[in-house]
């Protein structure tokens, strides 16, 4: 009898200490989902990104997991954030805009140049596309790969290399997303674009305002459309 009472008392103590904590934990997780929902609605959809596939992917990917702990509280604000090595995770609106414009989704093969934190790659993968992403800074490539694996993004391959050369083994790509500013469009990337494929790329002078271009390949010809002024970190070249 005594054992039973102690057992019941133990359960009551356990319940008292453990169960009240659970809602607090899930409330904290919810809190970030609410912030993310507000980010998608107020910063991205309100500014003209309407593609449901893109908006759903942005709603799913936990941006706060892609920034350093010290930046986590700003993760759902409308701005780029430092991710170490002098690089930045892009502003959420730009990620949404660049995602929507290349029409990602299941069955699409997409190459990203400039993995950085892995956030843009995760958003592309969350649309159901198969994603290949290249980062030139080994430390960022390693931390992004670990993060993407931990978060369970399976339709994604990452490597450390100079993205100027693209990823010939997996070409052609339905779309290419370049997230560092180049002075000209690297010819290997045009070659690796599928017929009818789309590339979104910031082109211009490093450290100044660049122009975001949409390149479309039709057979052996390409056309280019100026989308908007942007500011990206410079495209580096391997020495
Ligand atoms: N897409 C990233 C943001 C990237 S910032 C994100 O979602 O977090 C641009 C990234 O491009 C930086 O990490 C930079 O190191 C990388 N980069 C610059 N030049 C590159 C090149 N030639 N090849 C591959 N990555 C490059």
Account of the 3D structure:
This protein is α/β, with parallel strands linked by helices and 239 residues long. Helix content is 36%, strand content 25%. The protein has a domain at 17-29 and 96-230: 3-Layer(aba) Sandwich (Rossmann fold), CATH 3.40.50.150. It has helices spanning 2-18, 21-44, 52-60, 92-101, 119-126, 138-150, 187-191; strands at 81-84, 87-89, 109-113, 130-135, 156-160, 173-178, 193-203, 210-218, 221-230. The strands form two sheets. It has a seven-stranded mixed beta sheet with strand order 5-4-3-6-7-8-9. The protein has a two-stranded antiparallel sheet with strand order 1-2. The chain is globular, with a radius of gyration of 21 Å. The relative contact order is 0.11. The structure holds S-adenosyl-L-homocysteine. S-adenosyl-L-homocysteine (SAH) binds at residues 87-90, 113-114, 116-117, 119-120, 134-137, 140, 162-164, 179-180, 233, 235-236.
Helix content: 25-40%
Report the CATH superfamily of the domain at 17-29 and 96-230: Vaccinia Virus protein VP39
Q: According to CATH, what is the class of the domain at 17-29 and 96-230?
A: Alpha Beta
Distinct ligands = S-adenosyl-L-homocysteine
**Count of helices?**
7
Strand residue percentage: 15-25%
From the alpha carbons, calculate the radius of gyration and give it in angstroms.
Answer: 21 Å
Report the biggest beta sheet as strand number plus sense, adding barrel if it closes: 7 strands, mixed
User: Per CATH, what is the topology of the domain at 17-29 and 96-230?
Assistant: Rossmann fold
């Amino acid at each position: 009898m005594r054992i039973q009472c102690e057992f019941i008392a133990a359960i009551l103590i356990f319940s008292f200490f453990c169960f009240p904590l659970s809602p607090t934990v899930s409330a904290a997780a919810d809190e970030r989902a609410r912030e993310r929902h507000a980010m998608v609605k107020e910063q991205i959809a309100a500014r003209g990104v309407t593609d449901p596939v893109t908006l759903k992917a942005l709603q799913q990917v936990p941006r706060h997991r892609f920034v350093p702990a010290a930046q986590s509280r700003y993760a759902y604000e409308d701005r780029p954030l430092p991710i170490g090595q002098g690089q930045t995770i892009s502003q959420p609106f730009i990620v949404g805009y660049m995602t929507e414009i290349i029409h990602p989704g299941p069955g699409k093969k997409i190459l990203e140049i400039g993995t950085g934190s892995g956030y843009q790659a995760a958003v592309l993968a969350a649309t159901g596309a198969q994603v290949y992403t290249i980062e030139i800074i080994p430390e960022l490539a390693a931390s992004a790969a670990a993060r993407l694996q931990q978060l369970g993004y399976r339709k994604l391959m990452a490597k450390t290399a100079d993205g100027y050369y693209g990823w010939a083994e997996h070409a052609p790509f339905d779309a290419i997303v370049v997230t560092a500013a180049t002075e000209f469009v690297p010819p290997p990337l045009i070659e690796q674009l599928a017929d009818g494929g789309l590339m979104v790329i910031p082109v211009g002078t490093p450290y100044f305002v660049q122009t975001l271009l949409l390149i479309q390949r039709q057979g052996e010809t390409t056309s280019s459309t100026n989308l908007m002024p942007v500011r990206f970190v410079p495209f580096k070249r391997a020495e």
